[in-house]
Amino acid sequence: MQRVHPFDVVARILSERLQGREASDDLQATVGSAELDWERIVGIASAHFVLPACAAALRDLRSLGSLNDELGAFLEAVHAANMERNAELRAELAAAVNVLNRAGIEPVLLKGAIRLLDGLYPDDGWRMLRDLDLLVARSALADASRAFEEAGYAPIEDGAFRRGTGACKIELHEELFAGSRQLRLLQAVNVLNGSRPLAFKDATVRIPSVEHQLVHLIGHSQLRHCGHAIGRICLRDRLEAAALLHRPREAVCWQEIWARFVAAGYRRPLLSFLLALGDGAWVTVPAIDEIDRLTELQRRRISLQARSTVVDYVGSRAGWCVSEFKSQVRERDAGQPRGIRNLKRLISERGAVRRMARAFWDRQRLLLHASPYLSWFVA
Questions:
Q1: Where are the domains of the chain?
Q2: Which pTM does this prediction carry?
């Protein structure tokens, strides 16, 4: 059997499960091969935040039996742990939404919070979440913050709250992106107007349209977190985009998505992301524009980085440096960065270099919220 890279093994497991509940003969033979390095496979799935999804997909494809008993039990425990975690987050979301509803506010769920309610994945244990993100109208932000504080939630950072026994922090947003150029991609008013209400226990939340979810997913991954700059598209983001596109309930208007990215000057990040969905047969996306040479080079770079430990390590460290630099600039000017002028002020401040070095070192803990799963290996 031809040697298969661990990244491709994870991608094929997830993409085949999205397309049905029967594994192909080729995948069954691959999973059952004695040549596979399952430690690396699990490591890649963890680094890309899809280990619980991979475990559930193997179970649904009836492929867990091809693994040794210890590995199979570990993967089942990973999925069960994430199911339990997401049940806690669902309860946390219900409490937060009730607080906001009593203040006359129906929040729009963002990112992972949507997955707790919309049934996109086969079960609630697929998606890994760290916190809950809610979008409220700018005019309602002060009322939302006041309602949380009166309900016993403590402000822990700008726009974020947490109650004493809460399972995670709740982040309130008035916009999905920062900076005038990224705001041209998608503004809160468009998301609020295009969202649909959804009953949630005794409360009501709102869900963004599928086009807005895709724009936010791609923009957040590739622009807000510099994924395009460092050549990395996380498997969790590929999985989520593919799942949204496989969903039969809503047809995707590619012209609208394309127009938003082009108008904001982000044509290449969108094309690169869509091309990456073809790397692993996630989903077939209609070609919208001609692929120029730079976009093709970026596609190859993303593909190489996904399969090269060294290239991925270098790219990730570069990305953390850029991200931390941007974060420090925002903090220096109360969340309103003004480019080079602020960078000069920041660098000239006493202790700035030391602070940034310490923050960079702290970012080594990229998988901190995945540690409960990884600890099963070292126990």
A1: 104-208, 209-307, 320-362
A2: 0.82
